[in-house]
Amino acid sequence: MNDSDILDVIDRRIIAALQINPRAGVAEVGRILGEHERSVARRLQRLLALGLVHFTAEYDRLRCPLGHTAWLRLKSRPGCLEAVGDALARRVDALNVAAVSGAPGLLWCELAVPTRPLLHALAEGVPDLPDAEVRDVCVTLRSFKTGAEWYAPVLTDEEEKLLRASLVQPLPTLADRYDLTPTDERVAGLLRANARVSLTDLARELGFSTATAGRRVASLLERRVLRLRTVVDPALLDRPARALLRLRVRPAGLEKVSATLAAHRDVHSCTAVTGPYNLLAEVCLTHETDVHDFLVDALGPAEDVLGLDTGIVTRTYKFGPGTDTPRR
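Given the sequence above, the corresponding structure tokens read:
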């Protein structure tokens, strides 16, 4: 049985709706998708019970500021790939972990790095991971698209428009830096644990009125301090073929290439980073053979792309954030 066979068409449409609007109510989702509210609620409960989907929120770490995220390319010792991948996946500061093609024992890991000393220490390797050698450390400079913004392309344009109508809209101008207050952190912590937590439960946990809880949530979202995210393996949404692209882009064309990739429905994330390859992108496709067409169609016209390295994800150990990174 393929991963995508676990879900039917209606399941995938419900997930896609909640990827666009993670806090949409089951009645709203049912109305927009033409499904009964009870059916949506029953299916969503099944997805949660099976652990196939969870709802969280991600900080904009650079603006908050909470440190950095770094993409690590690692080489495991012979015979240690599974152990290293599993060990990385258990780390709360690991956001994504995957084995990729290109060389034996090759892994990519996106890591939350809260302090500069910890970032410096990565040059010596990952603590408590003696069976892996760090080949590259690429620090995130700017995110053009994150996993929170990708959704399965299974809805109509009208359905997508209706789902976006109830989203909190960002402010016209966003500050370069936002200092989190203790109350912000408490609200964010509850949303990171469950982005669909009700305002009633949120208010009770925080000792606020429901209206105040709603304003606090809206404030974090409209300032883009947090992005809500429905985390699900794309393989379950008939997108089992994932490719990680490292691009060497001419600086003058970086914004243009990044914007083009970010707007593409098959692109899961697009990030400007340090290093000789200054742009990382992840694509989610139906089959590995589609990677060739994507490269030709999406990147072929891009004259500013000077170099490209492509790796196919062969196994996913962790997809999406888990619990908060501990402060160190």
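The longest strand covers residues 305-319. Try to locate this feature in the token string yourself.
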